[in-house]
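Notebook p. 47: complex prediction with heme C.
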Amino acid sequence: MLRKLRRGAALGAVLLAGLAALALPLTRPERAPADAMAGLEGDATRGARIFDAAGCAGCHMAPNAPDGEPQARLRLSGGQEFASPFGTFRAPNISPDPEEGIGRWSALDLYNALHFGTSPEGRHYYPAFPYTTYVNASRQDVADLYAYLMTLPADATPSRPHEVAFPFNIRAGLGLWKALFLRPGWVVTGALSPEQTRGRYLAEALGHCGECHTPRNALGGLRRDAWLAGAPIPGGRGHFPNITPARLDWSEADLIEYFTSGFTPEYDSAGGHMALVVRNLALLPREDRAALAAYLQAVAPVPEAPS
Ligand code: HEC
Ligand code: HEC
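Predicted complex, structure tokens below:
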């Protein structure tokens, strides 16, 4: 029986490898042309704003970074864990350390990671790294972000491996996932004011609000038909709330207050993952928080995620 099972597993693996080999030409990690970032001058001050809007520190700072120290969140040693139905992911070190971090990376390497989910060695990244959002970020913003990242303190903490089970531990399989779900483009379209358009960029190219607030299909792809309509928290209890206008009836001023202080109109304070998000949003200029609030009012109302 056991032998049969093993043989079955081996056969499965061979089949899977065969399929992956067939699909490989279609799903090879993509990269930008070598001159894609040529001529772009990065501005670290602008980059700081991108960094805060994109929430990079929320995932890449140390798991034990003390709350009260603003500098602690800038030490991007990695190590935080993210549960998912496919296993546990660990954020890597992205400090400018040349050995353990990304100190040897070029701006083009960063662009390929954020835009294509492709590593400098040409491997696929897992979408736990929200490049499905960052694919919409402009090259100038990536150049600015790169300039800023290189000013942060280097940290020599080694990155730790993910704990992901077969077959999800085979990165080549991610090519298929990307072919299905990774594409640039906006979810919220139609007649938007300039402020809402700015808010959409902040939400859909940087702030990755959808990565938590949007439900996923069985393969882990975001359900664009139920954008921001709420989702179960993976590996945890409870729900990411529905923040479409069908459920969230806060005024723009309420939203701006929430993104600034974390206080809801009922004087609750933002908890869980959202506390970290607010910590980043609070660092942005007020006009960016106002733009996010304006964007949320342009999202299609979805009372409940349709199944
Ligand atoms: C939701 C959590 C999350 C956020 C937000 C996030 N990352 Fe990551 N990032 C990850 C995970 C998880 C990985 C590992 C992916 C893998 O191994 O396939 C990763 C990988 C990376 C890598 C590759 C590092 C290496 O050693 O190959 C870089 C660079 C990176 N992230 C930069 C950023 C930047 C810059 C931002 C902000 C714009 C950001 N990340 C935001 C979770 C996150
Ligand atoms: C890492 C996951 C995560 C991300 C990313 C995220 N949120 Fe949230 N959000 C949450 C959680 C969890 C809550 C519930 C907080 C609580 O219960 O106190 C929440 C609550 C909220 C609420 C309050 C809803 C209510 O009914 O109380 C708003 C508004 C909101 N998020 C907007 C946003 C916007 C806008 C973005 C993108 C800029 C965003 N969120 C990104 C996890 C996230």
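Notes: Residues 1-13 have pLDDT under 50 and may be disordered. The pocket of heme C (ligand 2) is lined by residues 203, 207-209, 211-213, 240-241, 243, 248, 255, 258, 264, 270-274, 277, 292 (CB under 6 Å).
Next step: compare against the earlier run before touching the bench.
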